[in-house]
Amino acid sequence: MRLTTKGRYAVTAMLDLAFHSEIKPVTLTDIAARQTISLSYLEQLFARLRRANMVKGIRGPGGGYTLAGQAHDINIADIIAAVDEPLEATKCGGEANCQKEQACLTHDLWMGLSDQIRDYLKGITLAHLLEKHHVKEVAKRQDMEASQVVEVHRHTELIANLNELL
């Protein structure tokens, strides 16, 4: 089984959202800056997460996204499924048509592994991850790094504007 960028980024973005949206809605621009994920890619992921009722958008000034439910009710397997990421260790996607339209010799082995992975990820919620000290430390570091990047961009824009005036 290989989890692609889509699944990893969806989980990362949802954890970032869970951490930061407790105070106010979070913009995708902020998540993109903190997690170094393309804004357009996040927009695609959040469209799927919104359709799966995992996030809700808030319009207007001060708007952004929040979790649609409680962090303890959102598990990692559901996030991955919401962005159409398969959690299958089989080549056949669980269809048992791996070899000449029939199950291969190791089909049951890989199906069992898929079930174990799915069960493991279903047992982990965003709240579980938020409780980890390391997650909080990384989130704080990312906040600081992202705010430094924003400051550099502001200074660059200010200098460009001043140069235009001169």
Task: Give an account of the 3D structure.
By secondary structure, the chain is mainly α. It has two domains: 5-131, Arc Repressor Mutant, subunit A (Orthogonal Bundle), CATH 1.10.10; 134-166. It has seven helices and two strands; from the N terminus they run H-H-H-E-E-H-H-H-H. The protein has helices spanning 5-20, 28-35, 39-51, 76-82, 107-122, 126-130, 133-165; strands spanning 55-58, 64-67. The longest helix has 33 residues, at 133-165. It is elongated. The protein starts with a helix and ends with a helix.
Classify the secondary structure makeup into a structural class: mainly alpha
Order of helix and strand elements from N to C terminus: HHHEEHHHH
Using only C-alpha atoms, the radius of gyration works out to 20 Å
Number of helices: 7
Distance between the termini: 58 Å
Write down the CATH topology of the largest domain. Arc Repressor Mutant, subunit A
Strand content: under 5%
Roughly how much helix do the residues carry, as a percent range? 55-70%
Point out poorly predicted stretches: none
Known CATH architecture of the largest domain: Orthogonal Bundle
The coarse overall form would be elongated
Give the full name of the CATH homologous superfamily of the largest domain. Answer: Winged helix-like DNA-binding domain superfamily/Winged helix DNA-binding domain
Q: Give the count of structural domains.
A: 2
Please identify the top-level CATH class of the largest domain: Mainly Alpha
Mean pLDDT: 87
Strand order of the largest sheet: 1-2
**Count of individual beta strands:** 2
For the biggest sheet, the summary is: 2 strands, antiparallel
